[in-house]
Amino acid sequence: MNTRRLTWRAARLVGSRAETDAARTLVFKIPGWPGHLPGQHVDVRLTADDGYSTQRSYSVASASDGDLVELTVQNVPGGEVSPYLAEVLEVGDEVEIRGPVGGWFVWRPTGVEPVLLVAGGSGIVPLMAMIRARRQAGSRTPFRLVYSVREPRQRFYADELRHAGPGDAGLDVAYLYTRSAPDGWPRAAGRLMAADLGAHGWPAGLAPDCYVCGPTGFVETAADILLALGHDPRKIRTERFGPTGG
């Protein structure tokens, strides 16, 4: 979307809300923001009074909305950036943001093929941007989300996904719990299996666009399952994250 050289921009925090006990959604106002595609990410830079600076990359959680950009940050204990963003940053404070970055792991609202989103933990963030962009565009492209988390209290965007409105018609959400499932949940707690994507994903014959995001091990497992189920490797897009110091 933006072909100009990326530059650092002042970003002022104008809102925030808790997603889980360890994650927070931050709403930044960034004058001159060029817009972004769902699935892209940004770099966030913090600079101390003594001139020391450090930066980390975070996926954008929101659909493009003028000069507002939402990020959802998982607090990484001992990290340099995420604890400050998740616990210290207050409305009115500023950081520097550069972006948007990335052009392959994106979904465009003009797409018509069915979409399968497979998220592990905080890997839901760029996929949620796709869901929100679909709603914003009034798209009728059918979406299915398979969201794997350790336990119910670690779900991001729980209320939004639970109370889907008219703009979310055609969006199906399936939760998988790896450590602790709610009482009476039809699936026992455990890791992602072929049966899960077979039951909640799209048949390979429909040639869906597949987006997989999460920790490296989760992404590799999900991609291998999709290939084993017959999905075209050219239609499987992955984004992974691992320990980066936060």
From TrEMBL:
For whether the record's keyword set contains Transmembrane, the answer is no
Query: Locate the FAD-binding FR-type domain: which residues?
Result: 6-107
Entries under Pfam families matching the protein: FAD_binding_6, NAD_binding_1
Q: Which cofactor does it need?
A: FAD
Q: Which keywords has UniProt assigned to this entry?
A: 2Fe-2S, Iron, Iron-sulfur, Metal-binding
Record carries keyword Iron: yes
Q: Which InterPro entries match?
A: Cbr1-like_FAD-bd_dom, FAD-bd_FR_type, Flavoprot_Pyr_Nucl_cyt_Rdtase, FNR_nucleotide-bd, MRET, OxRdtase_FAD/NAD-bd, Riboflavin_synthase-like_b-brl
Q: Which PANTHER family match?
A: NADH OXIDOREDUCTASE HCR, PROTEIN RFBI
- From the Swiss-Prot or TrEMBL record, give the protein name: Ferredoxin reductase
Query: Which organism encodes this protein?
Result: Sphaerisporangium rhizosphaerae
